[in-house]
Design brief:
The structure is a single chain. It is globular, with a radius of gyration of 19 Å. Helix content is 32%, strand content 27%. The strands form two sheets. Strands 1, 2, 3, 4, 5 and 6 form a six-stranded mixed sheet that branches. A four-stranded antiparallel sheet has the order 8-9-7-10, with helices on both faces. It has two domains: 158 residues, Ribosomal Protein S5, domain 2 (2-Layer Sandwich); 124 residues, GHMP kinase, C-terminal domain (Alpha-Beta Plaits). With 294 residues, it is α+β, with helices and mostly antiparallel strands. Helix 1 packs parallel to helix 2.
Length: 294
């Protein structure tokens, strides 16, 4: 039996997210600047005598094993689409390091990694475009998680514009360990026809990105803060730890602070983790556009 193939399923960070409308089918329209971290969950796939899914990691107990499990749905979608070799049984292992329902695309990123690994494992004829189309059937943010590089996302999250140049951002992710359902946040959203993102000028470093962020928003942050007031405390703590900019990612409740250097991010992460051991705290760095393409 061959060794398992593995892939990091990186955390997805919505640096800014503007809700600009709503379609007749209920899907919200948005514009978002998205980056992916070097840290995240880990997905492995290997041949097996029977299908199996193993969940480990700090947040394993929060991952469903039924029809709501996105890596299982990714496996089944590939089988339904391709048949043939895709019917061979596999063992899928998910090391769940990121909190669930936390606004950093954990489940979607896991499913994107599973799609890539399984397509390679079964040697399927599935190029980037086809995988993205299949991923969209699993969730609106699957195409961006499959891209896993700095980009602008529009529409329902499926219209992607990759950024030719974007710096790595030292940051700290913090979640008060309170799950927050995306549907609840959108239900509490008071306005759905907000202004689009400001123009994205060249951003050579974290300091310039932080300045741009001050002219942008996350339109889901106000309703999320009403639902989980602890988000206020997280943002204040990040700012107090020296973040150049602090904001909530996606539908929350995870927040991020952008720092001037990896050293300052690591130092802030240690300080926050010591002060609040009940929080999820992760010093990390987003992937630069050039790194993501490499």
């Amino acid at each position: 039996m061959t060794a398992p193939a593995s892939m990091t399923a990186p955390a997805k960070v919505n640096l800014a997210l503007h809700v600009t409308g709503r379609r007749d089918d209920g899907y919200h329209l948005m514009e978002s600047l998205v980056a992916f971290t070097g840290a995240g969950d880990l997905v492995e796939v290997e041949e097996s005598s029977a299908d199996e899914i193993i969940i480990s990691g700090h947040y394993a107990a929060h991952v469903p094993l039924d029809g709501d499990n996105l890596i299982a749905r990714a496996r089944d979608l590939l089988r339904a689409t391709f048949g043939g070799d895709a019917r061979a049984p596999v063992r899928l292992h998910l090391e769940k390091n990121l909190p669930v329902a936390s606004g950093i695309g954990g489940g979607s990123s896991d499913a994107a990694a599973a799609l890539r690994l399984l397509a390679a494992h079964w040697a399927l004829e599935a190029d980037e475009e086809r995988l993205a189309a299949l991923g969209l059937r699993l969730g609106a943010d699957l195409p961006m998680c499959l891209a896993a590089r700095p980009l602008l996302a529009r529409g329902i999250g499926d219209a992607l514009e990759e950024l030719p140049s974007f710096p790595a951002l030292p940051m700290v992710l913090v979640n008060p360990n309170i799950p927050l359902a995306t549907a609840d946040v959108f239900s509490a959203l008071e306005r759905r026809d907000n202004a689009p993102l400001p123009a994205l000028e060249p951003v050579p470093d974290a300091k310039v990105v932080a300045g741009w962020l001050r002219g942008a928003r996350n339109d889901l942050e106000p309703p999320a803060r009403r639902l989980v007031p602890q988000i206020d405390e997280v943002l204040e703590a990040l700012e107090g730890a020296g973040a150049l900019a602090a904001r909530m990612s996606g539908s929350g409740a995870t927040c991020f602070g952008v720092f001037s250097s990896p050293f300052s991010a690591e130092r802030a992460g240690r300080t926050l983790a010591q002060a609040r051991p009940d929080w999820f705290v992760l010093p990390t760095q987003t992937l630069a556009a050039e790194t993501a393409h490499a």
